């Protein structure tokens, strides 16, 4: 594996990669979720590039950019079987005077976008830059950050970018907690409380499978369950159209059940898709 | 030459073009200015693609999108020696639900951007789409739309797009009027009056060559000259840094003298660069 720090070196190496090229953009501090993205990329492409870059422009001014966990040495050890680890500096990606941004409108106003203004502008801009630098055939995103995946797909489609976006299922701990680099922030008691996100999603699935289609009733029961957990504070609980992310009154199409809950000081998100025969 | 109307057909044909590929994005209704871009692209690349698309998103609500001159048959006859003419429909480029935009900040707020809010957002977005569809090695823009060229260069640099932007000198009528598709709007008297743009720029060059560096004095003399023309109404007269487009007090670096003047009902722009030994 080659560790590449500059855009010009990445451009020089790119023609040597065997096509098709899989790409996994990350902010590092790897857990099984990241590694499952890398494994799927390896399975589907002879060459794989992984980027590790904690992107400052997707964090709000009061968010955890400075404290976001980093462990580059460990990350690189976990990546031994990919072709290139692209680990640019902040100055390399955002030189002085940087002033160009990509906005995907409408679907970025809901859910995470409503709670984190400017977040998706940072996400789409850095992904477009990385796509242009690495020129992958396919890029891999996790289902856990479902809105990110939907927004990136919309950008790729609207701007006619030349790659395919692949969404990989969420990897969970044995008790159901979705893997996230931010889980490191949780103390033992909070870690226990954090299960409430998956419990609420499981309740939604159970109600839907039992024939409940009224989203008010499902949201209400999810909310009640979370409110019983004293360490949890709800940001949002949503049952939305899985494609447009618009809230649904009735589940009459593939739906996304998603939520953001702060446990102690740590904001966590999770989601499941409600669709198919059941 | 192949005339291509869809993105998918363009993508299918692209691999057959010999590299490097030159690209000339246009809104059609060709004059010598367009043809000089095509000639330069032909000279520098074995393959050339020209797009003809009157881009609705770069026109303001009160601007001339509907009336903008079009003559596709004549345009295609003038293009016989290029490889592909890409002539997509509005629906092909902006399908229902289109919602992604590229903003280059700061330099788009001045000059044309100040007079035409949203104009450059439309320009950068359509150019990014066309670059992604056509994947050129080089794209050619006219010096007459100098701010457009500066903004596109900034987008390409900030977003790490894989192409080179080439700026080609303005082509002028024998009396100095810059060629523009909008010159067709001028009646005989207005056509005569329109020379005042080039006269004002020539005056700026003369003053600067004579040693005048105070931009207030140069702008004042340009303004006085234009005001003597009864059919002319000034939108702006600018002496700015040629790279940042920020107004200069003193010409102590390469400068852009530019102006927008409405003649009758037709808004015209023109510019010259003041730099070098003289």
- CATH homologous superfamily descriptor of the largest domain in chain A: HUPs
Q: What is the beta-strand fraction of chain A?
A: 15-25%
- Based on Cα principal axes, name the global outline of chain A: globular
Estimate percent helicity of chain A.
25-40%
List the helices and strands and how they pair.
The structure is a homodimer of 278-residue chains.
Chain A: E1 2-4, H1 7-13, E2 21-26, H2 32-44, E3 47-52, H3 72-78, E4 84-86, H4 90-93, E5 100-104, H5 111-115, H6 119-134, E6 138-142, H7 146-158, E7 164-168, H8 188-193, H9 195-209, H10 215-227, E8 232-241, E9 255-263, E10 266-274
Parallel strand pairs in A: 1-4, 2-3, 2-6, 3-4, 6-7
Antiparallel strand pairs in A: 8-9, 9-10
């Amino acid at each position: 594996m080659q560790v590449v720090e500059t855009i010009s070196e990445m451009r020089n190496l790119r023609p040597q990669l065997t096509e098709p090229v899989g790409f996994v953009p990350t902010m590092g501090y790897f857990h099984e979720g990241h590694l499952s993205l890398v494994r799927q990329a390896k399975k589907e492409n002879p060459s794989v590039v992984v980027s590790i870059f904690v992107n400052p422009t997707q964090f709000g001014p009061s968010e955890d950019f400075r404290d976001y966990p980093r462990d580059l040495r460990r990350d690189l050890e976990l990546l031994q079987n990919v072709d290139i680890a692209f680990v640019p500096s902040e100055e390399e990606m955002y030189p002085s005077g940087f002033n160009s941004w990509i906005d995907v409108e409408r679907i970025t106003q809901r859910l995470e976008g409503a709670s984190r203004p400017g977040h998706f502008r940072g996400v789409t801009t850095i992904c477009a830059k990385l796509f242009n630098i690495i020129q992958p055939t396919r890029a891999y995103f996790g289902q856990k950050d479902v809105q990110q995946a939907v927004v990136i797909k919309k950008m790729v489609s609207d701007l006619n970018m030349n790659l395919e976006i692949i969404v990989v299922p969420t990897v969970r701990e044995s008790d159901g907690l979705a893997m996230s680099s931010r889980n490191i922030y949780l103390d033992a008691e909070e870690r226990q409380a954090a299960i409430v996100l998956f419990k609420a999603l499981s309740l939604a699935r159970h109600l839907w499978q039992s024939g409940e289609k009224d989203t008010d009733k499902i949201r209400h029961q999810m909310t009640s369950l979370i409110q019983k957990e004293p360490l949890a504070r709800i940001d949002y609980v949503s049952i939305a159209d899985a494609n447009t992310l618009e809230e649904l009154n009735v589940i009459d199409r593939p739906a996304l059940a998603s939520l953001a809950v702060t446990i102690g000081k740590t904001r966590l998100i999770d989601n499941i898709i409600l669709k198919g025969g059941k």
